[in-house]
Automatic annotation (TrEMBL), chain A:
This is Acetyl-coenzyme A carboxylase carboxyl transferase subunit alpha. Acetyl-CoA carboxylase is a heterohexamer composed of biotin carboxyl carrier protein (AccB), biotin carboxylase (AccC) and two subunits each of ACCase subunit alpha (AccA) and ACCase subunit beta (AccD). It comes from Dokdonia sinensis. PANTHER family: ACETYL-COENZYME A CARBOXYLASE CARBOXYL TRANSFERASE SUBUNIT ALPHA (PTHR42853), ACETYL-COENZYME A CARBOXYLASE CARBOXYL TRANSFERASE SUBUNIT ALPHA, CHLOROPLASTIC (PTHR42853:SF3). Pathway: Lipid metabolism; malonyl-CoA biosynthesis; malonyl-CoA from acetyl-CoA: step 1/1. One of its GO terms (cellular component) is acetyl-CoA carboxylase complex. Belongs to the AccA family. PROSITE patterns: COA_CT_CTER (PS50989). InterPro entries: Acetyl_CoA_COase_a_su (IPR001095), ClpP/crotonase-like_dom_sf (IPR029045), COA_CT_C (IPR011763). Keywords: ATP-binding, Cytoplasm, Fatty acid biosynthesis, Fatty acid metabolism, Ligase, Lipid biosynthesis, Lipid metabolism, Nucleotide-binding, Transferase. NCBIfam families: accA, AccA_sub, PRK05724.1. Residues 37-292 form the CoA carboxyltransferase C-terminal domain. It catalyses: N(6)-carboxybiotinyl-L-lysyl-[protein] + acetyl-CoA = N(6)-biotinyl-L-lysyl-[protein] + malonyl-CoA.
Automatic annotation (TrEMBL), chain B:
The gene is accD. This is Acetyl-coenzyme A carboxylase carboxyl transferase subunit beta. It holds the Pfam family Carboxyl_trans. The keyword Transcription does not apply. The keyword Repressor does not apply. It comes from Dokdonia sinensis.
Length: 317, 287
């Protein structure tokens, strides 16, 4: 288990508890009372820390190295029914963007999402979850295929951004994202979007237009990362905490602004603290969202979706 | 030599204001040519010496494209509300006020309907002078409403992009304008109404990742910078030296994302020729 800077008091108490239990087993000293006291203190500390998370702390949690990634969710939710599908039929298969068909109970879904790696080697292989244009085009190919057969789409977002590379520019990163956004506004099957980690700007929105947009409790979604925002507006990397606050990028803030539809609760300590519980909650949320849209006609569905996005924006006059 | 002394201290012009419509008698192009501003104006703000396209705004583009500079502006009074009470080194509300005072504009886009070559067209034109032409709620809403006007009246639509991307001070609200404007363009496409995207210097970020790249034709002016990530970001991320001409209009056309590049003098004729051809109507003589 890795601890973030603000979790250090928890680490300390957990170590104390461990030592206490060890003394109990290795000697005749009765430690039941002491252990109980530490446990009580630990529970209180946890509650205190996780109930009062700042925007920046949530950003840190969204990037926690133990946090589950897209394929972890899909494999847990679909089991062995998941069939991964590869390639954009044009340039290559983007490893940062995965997709495929799978069942939730009796219903097929097309799953699409950015994939991060869990160690240095796989992080490079997945390009840190930063897709190239071919990733977005692969996503669109799978969405159009789902639409053809009336299969609903679930997209899972976890990206620090679309890859800002030389070849990405040559192959039209902007065009690829723009095309996805446009096609998603008029796709004739339900689209459920789940943000499970980082939702950075166009790279996220490129698979993020949907009928129901869900955000896990400790994730962020905005037009830019707090670090880049700090570097551009404050001209220094040091103001990321302030930038995180100013951007109103947490699930709560996004819900308040009506830019997402629902917040998905995470276990105390974050999604990684109890993975199975997280997978189950997300599965149930997808099923619930699908119930809401499955009986709408394609025309009503698209109209409703377009109306929702037309409402977004605050201005005078 | 008092002439050469700065009277005011701490003059610090932001980059976006440095090469703008010339206000003085002379204009110096980046290659060092000096041009009489009146001559420049008569030549569509293109340097006659080296073909350099000076950055211009909605005022000049409307003058170039609408017949006799006659048009009806749509939603001229929409302004930003600073919904997040955003503050970095400066308050967003102050930035807005400064930009409005300095430019005389309400926000970074103006939308209008009028005749070009005798036929109706709706044009949304961005102004880079207003906070880098950034797209927030007002830009998104005005473009959406202009597209609605096109849709209702069955008039071809054109967006002239000139923007650094989404407006950070409106955070996710500005991000969602990508979806909002794209949804409108999808409706235009479904109604078979032509949409022309003109990408001018510069067109980057969220603008490129939405309406700028979604035209029935995407066109540009010579030398314009067009890209998703800015050149500095690409260089810093990849650690590679960028090839000459990277992200210029010519580069973007070569990689298949622009239909053609038109010098500004030819712009009015070419967009009207395209509309006559795609709508299969008689070709007008537009000069």
């Amino acid at each position: 288990m890795e601890y973030l800077d603000f979790e250090l008091p928890i680490k300390e108490l957990e170590e104390q508890l461990e030592k206490c239990a060890l003394i109990g087993t290795e000697s005749d000293v009765d430690v039941t009372q002491t252990c109980k006291q530490i446990e009580k203190k630990l529970a209180a500390t946890k509650k205190d820390i996780y109930k009062n998370l700042t925007a920046w702390q949530r950003v840190q949690l969204s990037r926690h190295p133990n946090r589950p990634y897209t394929l972890d969710y899909i494999n847990a939710i679909c089991g062995d029914t998941f069939l991964e599908l590869h390639g954009d039929r044009n340039v290559k298969d983007d490893k940062a963007m995965i997709g495929g068909l799978g069942k939730i109970d009796d219903q097929s879904f097309m799953f699409i999402g950015q994939q991060k790696g869990y160690n240095t080697k796989t992080r490079q292989y997945r390009n840190f979850g930063m897709a190239n244009p071919e990733g977005y085009r692969k996503a669109l190919r799978l969405m159009k295929s789902a639409e053809k057969f009336g299969v609903p789409v679930v997209t899972i977002i976890d990206t620090p951004g679309a890859y800002p590379g030389l070849e990405a520019e040559e192959r039209g990163q902007g065009e690829a994202i723009a095309r996805n956004i446009l096609e998603m506004t008029r796709l004739k099957v339900p689209i459920i979007v789940v943000i499970i980690g980082e939702g950075a700007s166009g790279g996220a929105l490129g698979i993020g237009v949907g009928d129901k947009v869900l955000m896990l409790e400790n994730t962020w979604y905005s037009v830019i990362s707090p670090e880049s925002c700090s570097s551009i507006l404050w001209r220094s990397w040091e103001f990321k905490e302030q930038a995180a606050d100013a951007l109103k990028l947490t699930a709560n803030d996004m819900k308040k602004q009506k830019l997402i539809d629902e917040i998905v609760k995470e276990p105390l300590g974050g999604a990684h603290a109890n993975r199975e519980e997280t997978f189950l909650t997300v599965k149930k949320s997808i099923q619930k969202a699908y119930q809401e849209f499955k009986n709408l006609s394609p025309k009503d569905l698209v109209e409703k979706r377009m109306d929702k996005y037309s409402q977004m924006g605050v201005f005078k006059g | 030599m008092a002439w050469f002394k700065r009277k005011e201290k701490g003059i610090n012009t932001p980059t976006e204001n440095k090469k703008d419509t010339p206000k003085g008698l002379w204009y110096k192009s980046p290659t060092g040519k000096v041009i009489d501003t009146e001559e420049l104006e008569q030549n569509f703000y293109v340097s006659p010496e080296d073909g350099y396209h000076v950055r211009i705004g909605s005022h000049e583009y409307f003058e170039i494209l609408f017949d006799d500079n006659k048009f009806k502006e749509l939603d001229p009074n929409l302004t930003s509300k600073d919904p997040l009470k955003f503050e970095d080194k400066k308050k967003y509300s102050d930035r807005l006020k400064d930009a409005q005072d300095k430019t005389g504009l309400k926000d970074a886009v103006r939308t209008a309907v009028g005749k070009s070559g005798g036929e109706d067209i709706v044009i949304a034109c961005m102004d880079f002078r207003f906070i880098g032409g950034s797209m927030g709620s007002v830009v998104g809403e005005k473009i959406a409403r202009a597209a609605d006007y096109s849709l209702k009246n069955k008039i071809p639509f054109m967006i002239i992009s000139k923007s650094g991307g989404a407006r950070m001070m409106e955070a996710a609200l500005s991000l969602m304008q990508l979806a909002k404007t794209s949804a409108k363009l999808a409706q235009l496409a479904d109604a078979n109404i032509p949409y022309i995207s003109l990408c001018t210097d510069p067109t980057t970020g969220g603008t490129t990742a939405s309406f700028a790249m979604l035209g029935d034709i995407n066109i540009s002016e010579p030398g314009a910078l067009i890209g998703f990530a800015g050149p500095r970001v690409v260089r810093d991320t990849t650690g590679k030296e960028l090839p000459d001409g990277f992200q210029t209009a010519e580069f973007v056309q070569e990689h298949g994302f622009l239909d053609f590049i038109s010098p500004r003098q030819e712009l009015k004729r070419k967009i009207n020729l395209y509309l006559d051809l795609i709508l299969n109507r008689p070709v007008r003589n537009v000069s």
